[in-house]
Backbone:
């Protein structure tokens, strides 16, 4: 195993590991993107890039392939280093990867000719480079079991390519396939990583001895069915096979959560946040199935996955990973975490559940949920930006 620690005195550590740069870029972008979405939604803006990029597609794309992809890449660049013992991108290589991601996010707001094509090229360059950078240490260490996670990122790159091809060459069906397959692949990645790390985090973070009921057959069957679900829901979101697979996945997620449950999680914000995030994935599958029988707005099920599942899981994971990998004590996290996670949980309830009760105020619920998201992520940036920029408190590299 390669040596990955040194004892130098580091003054600026943002480019040491992927989680530092991309957690910071992703969360700052999240605040700006949802603030812009709030403004566009309030003003009734329809298009960006001189009328070629519908604003609703911009919002959806940037939260899936902008924010979520940045967090996933930051997490995996850090995790793969730990799994393989080999360095992943750092220093100027990491900086160039971040710059390509950042310029792609800016392009729709410029007046440059061909801004959308430039955005597509830079965004796909980011995706492909990240895949290559992650594959190299996996192959070098011969850790073939990690290829399942890596292949999910590769499929997301393909989905992003479909989105851009459809958008630039005016094939709406390709755009739809790219967007929704990307969203559900992020959910698949959360499920795959959650099966590994949620029980691990709970057992080591709850504060008392506990052995959780982890069932390998649940993990395998969930991922097989998830691949079937992605194909089915993208092909026809209200087909019978989509409904049946969604019901099966909802049942499997409940069984997972029952096996992971221990009462002590409610005293630990770093635990209840990711546990409830997984619960939103169950709600997403349930609402997807119910659409077949009950006239539910399909956007509610999608946002159960996106706002509740992706939003809460990513902020919870970033909070936990950032503490551990900067040398801080995960058992004494910042007090602000309870308020931060509660704001996002409330936002998910307002965005997904309250419209079922009071659908006439749907626009207001969207705006309230946008504000609650912004509050949660501003709090994250305020609390965690100094940790992500400054060196580890124990003086080690990372």
Residues:
């Amino acid at each position: 195993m390669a040596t990955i620690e040194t004892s130098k005195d580091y003054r600026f550590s943002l480019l040491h590991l992927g989680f530092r740069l991309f957690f910071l870029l992703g969360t700052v972008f999240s605040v700006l993107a949802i603030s812009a979405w709030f403004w566009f939604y309030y003003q009734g803006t329809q298009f960006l890039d001189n009328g070629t990029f519908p604003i609703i597609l911009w919002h959806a794309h940037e939260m899936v392939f902008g924010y979520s992809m940045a967090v996933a890449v930051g997490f995996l660049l850090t995790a793969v280093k730990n799994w393989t013992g080999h360095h992943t991108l750092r220093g100027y290589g990491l900086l160039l990867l971040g710059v390509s991601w950042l310029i792609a996010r800016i392009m729709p707001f410029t007046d440059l000719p061909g801004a959308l094509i430039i955005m597509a090229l830079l965004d796909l360059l980011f995706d492909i480079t990240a895949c290559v950078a992650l594959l190299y240490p996996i192959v070098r260490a011969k850790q073939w079991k990690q290829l399942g996670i890596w292949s999910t990122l590769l499929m997301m790159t393909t989905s992003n390519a479909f989105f851009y091809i459809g958008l630039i060459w005016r094939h709406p069906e390709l755009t739809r396939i790219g967007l929704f397959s990307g969203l559900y692949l992020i959910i698949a990645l959360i499920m795959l990583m959650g099966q590994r790390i949620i029980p691990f985090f709970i057992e080591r973070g709850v504060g008392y001895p506990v052995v959780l009921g982890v069932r390998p057959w649940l993990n395998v069957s969930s991922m097989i069915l998830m691949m079937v679900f992605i194909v089915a829901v993208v092909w026809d979101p209200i087909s019978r096979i989509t409904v049946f697979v969604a019901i099966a996945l909802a049942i499997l997620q409940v069984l997972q959560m029952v096996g992971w449950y221990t009462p002590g999680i409610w005293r630990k914000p770093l635990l209840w946040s990711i546990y409830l995030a997984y619960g939103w994935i169950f709600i997403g599958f349930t609402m997807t199935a119910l659409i077949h029988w009950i006239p539910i707005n399909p956007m509610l099920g999608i946002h159960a996955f996106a706002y509740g599942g992706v939003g809460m899981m990513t902020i919870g994971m970033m909070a936990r990973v950032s503490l551990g990998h900067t040398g801080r004590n995960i058992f004494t996290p910042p007090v602000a975490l309870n308020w931060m996670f509660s704001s996002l949980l409330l936002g998910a309830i307002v965005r997904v559940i309250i419209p079922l009760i009071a659908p006439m105020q749907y626009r207001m619920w969207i705006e309230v949920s946008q504000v609650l998201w912004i509050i949660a992520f501003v709090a994250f940036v305020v609390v965690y930006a100094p940790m992500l920029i400054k060196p580890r408190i124990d003086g080690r590299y990372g």
